[in-house]
Design brief:
The structure is a single chain. The chain contains 8 helices and no strands. By secondary structure, the protein is mainly alpha-helical. It folds into 2 domains: 3-86, RNA polymerase sigma factor, region 2, helix turn helix motif (Rna Polymerase Sigma Factor, Chain: A, Orthogonal Bundle), CATH 1.10.1740.10; 107-176, Arc Repressor Mutant, subunit A, CATH 1.10.10.10. The longest helix has 23 residues, at 16-38. The chain is elongated and about 55 Å long. Mean pLDDT is 84; it is low at 97-105.
């Protein structure tokens, strides 16, 4: 059962708690997904709010042809694309300027993991937007190729090809930056 669809039906029937459940369930993931487009977490948060406002105010019809999450992310993608068309591309905040907070358990181990994550993060941001997007949806959000195809408005075959090429490009970027794989 797709809980988001049930919550949305309840919201449409007048139960405001349904919308609150949707926001709690999907907010964090949607912010991270939209951030892959705009490269600015604050803008991604605003676009996520716009996505939920779209649900609350316009009450678009959910047909059930996909999962609720897929449908919601497609709405967020559409809103973000509209934002990018109307605004100049925002500058990227360098990853080096972001704070790093370590656990007290293993500072050295956490530092190494953090550096690896940074290397992957930097490499991801050097990829083409479609590559970045398909990797994010498939691996961070766990969408199937069919769901990713709906969100990105491509065929499943195009997604498979994109995913293959994106992984290859990511590996090349990582090797270029001297990334060492754990055995």
């Amino acid at each position: 059962m797709d809980h988001g669809a049930g919550s949305y039906r309840r919201y449409l029937a007048g139960d405001d708690e349904g919308l609150h459940e949707i926001i709690r369930e999907y907010r964090a993931g949607l912010i991270l997904y939209l951030n892959s487009f705009v490269q600015n977490i604050h803008t991604a948060e605003d676009l996520t709010e716009d996505t939920f406002a779209e649900l609350a105010i316009r009450c678009p019809k959910f047909s059930g042809k996909s999962t609720f999450k897929t449908w919601l992310y497609a709405i967020g993608r559409h809103i973000t694309a509209k934002h990018l068309r109307t605004h100049a591309r925002l500058s990227i905040v360098p990853l080096e300027s972001q704070e790093y907070l370590a656990d007290e358990e293993s500072i050295e181990g956490n530092y190494i993991k953090s550096e690896q994550k940074r290397a992957v993060h930097k490499a991801l941001h050097r990829l083409k937007p479609d590559y970045r997007q398909v990797l994010y949806l498939s691996y961070f959000e766990g969408f199937s190729n069919a769901e990713t195809a709906v969100i990105m408005q491509k065929s499943t075959r195009q997604i498979e090809s994109l995913l293959y090429n994106a992984k290859k490009a990511l590996r090349t970027e990582l090797e270029r930056s001297g990334f060492e794989y754990e055995e």
